[in-house]
Amino acid sequence: MAQHLSIRVPWKDNGYNGLVCDKPCYNNACLRLKNIAGNREDELEDGLKGCPIKGHEAEIPCLGEGGCFMSSDTYIKETIHPYQKTSKQHKHFLPTQLVYPPFSLPARPFAWTMLYKDGDKQYFKKLVEKYCIDFDEDEEPDLGFDTNWVQDAENQRNIFKEFYTDVKIDESLVIPYAKQVPFIEDTKRVVMGIGWVKSIIEPPEHKHTNAGSLRSILWETMIGHSIREDGEDGFLLPYRELMDYAKAHPEFDIRTATVFVDDEYFDEFSYATEHASHDAVISVLLQTIKALRVIKDCGIPGNWKHCIKWTKKRLEEVWLDRGPYPGLGTMLRIEKISSGHIMAREIKAQVDDLSQYEAVVRQALGEPKQFFSKKIQGLLRFKGKNLQAILQLQGERKALFWLLARMALTEEQASLIYDAAERQKAGLALTDKEILSNPYILYEKTRSLLPENIIPLKVIDRAIYPPDVIYDTNPLEEPTALEACNDERRVRAYFISLLEQHALEGHTVYPVNFLINELNDMPIEPACEVSGDVISIMDNFLAEELVKVSCKNGETAYQLRRLTEIDEVIRSAVETRLNGQRHVVQEDWNKIVQEAFQGKPEAPNEDKAREEKAAILKELAESRLSVLIGGAGTGKTTLLALLCKSPKIRDGKVLLLAPTGKARVRMQQAMQEQGVVCEAKTVAQFLGQSKRYDYYTMQYHLSDQDAKDVPFTVIIDECSMLTEEMFGALLEALRKGAQRIIFVGDPNQLPPIGE
What we know:
This protein is an alpha/beta fold. 39% of the residues lie in helices and 12% in strands. The chain is built from 32 helices and 20 strands. Strands 1, 4, 5, 6, 7, 8, 9 and 10 form an 8-stranded mixed sheet that branches. Helix 8 packs across helix 15. The longest helix has 20 residues, at 278-297. It is globular.
């Protein structure tokens, strides 16, 4: 089994052949990398623009980030340990030369050398256990200050040994990627190219005197690659040429030729260098094939036809190397066998016939002493009961184990699904039988959970639809087996995924014809080809999650059922308030306005302006639902303050709400400056009290629970930022108690999505 690598590189405006950028001061995309942002000297680089980096290795920080990985030159850069000046234990370290060979990438697996990550203090301990790394905690030095990095040379060597153990020359792919590019605004990782690993040069040890005992190695393993400009055995994607093409063809969408890393593989393309799983590489290769076809059709010069053929061949190989059970190691660990991933690797190495995969697994678990390496045998010494428990699985439980073993899930995801108690805790009302009958329901039911708990749709899809060479030897059985590539279970899940994506873009109702076209055009294999006639025979099944909507132009659209329910709440609440009896507020608004502006400089048409202000106050006070809009500085806060100062309003209490904490503070301060003191909350804080906001999943939803302590007047600022879910949940929560709801917004603050 070959382990593929992702390696981060900076964006360069003139390629990676060893030149300083043509316009270094305009290259802000590379500043996403801390090393470049902290060490780039704009004036110096501007003076060297377009010049060779060779000879200036110490001055150009992008070299250390892989900025010359397509250069035929050898670069030598002198480095010093980052703690040499600040740590007593590192004072004896000397400058050390680091050699960058031609056509090589500096690989630095930062995540494997971090003692904790994302606040998880047990992160590194779990990593060591998962990969059976020889790590001696007692060898780590006491530096007298906190550090998040492994320091001892021997520990570092053992980490890197495991990290690169399955990286094989001419078998492992290397995928350079960028954190940011100038032609895409979002934060998705962008694949820059693909090639073979051609060489692996281990990092040197930091030079040192004998004044101290601590030893440490550099982290840059130099990965030689096969990427060349002719594209014969690896290639770069021509993004700079595509940028020029887009300028000449304004109708061209450059995203159609851009290879993005799917969100579920974000961590695999982070922390400078990481293992890229087979599923992540399959996703990248499928997108690359689609992008290369667009590039070829655009007439961009290049050997693209050959690149497409090369990428297709790599896709076949990665699928075969992935095999039918990429999640076996995870499932073994779910059954409390800590060495599960290494065991799965050793099992896979001894599977000669894919049709015998499960039989080999059973043999290995039944006779571990005859099957596994000495190291694994030692780790399994007291795990006999766990092994037997797996061997004795029966019926639906056994089927679910092997179904999940077909999916490349994280341990958290697999545990959530396999453990019935975890399922119940997460609110997933699913039985083993329901999952086996429709694996796609795992995506449908988890899509509202935290991102790390969502079962990715494409991960399920690859388990159900592997290539024939895998499926024919390890076919799915009833009730899991799907009858066609456009099975209704698959179609519904993909429709839901597309609708969820479009809902985030502001399109909560979407034409069926658009969905059909987008599904047919998806880079998935096998293609899920559908037509209007095919969709019509799935109506009843689709209706469980999707609602048909008739558009004014006669077209049919779909809406997620949860959004339909929210829309009905919004529609009903708005109609009830608009049709309800208006409030009677005995207040002299003209007098209030005159007193408030007495002695202030009068502008042209001042009398008319004050009349309008009084009329607005009267409307806000008497309406059950109103909207106050105006740009910055138009006096919205002043009017609201005058309204709230009225005893008729103040005595019923006032609540200020805003979508964000910053907006809440700003609104409350502005009102205080006007002499109004009242309670202010974020929308999430208010809705969380009545179970309409889940702090765990960060989702807004409807609830039957009455909101408590709702005042007579509720003012919602920055209402243009409200999503439909927030809007519906708010109106439902305020249905009892709130006599008047006032939405406040600036039409220039958040333009309509799609405009």
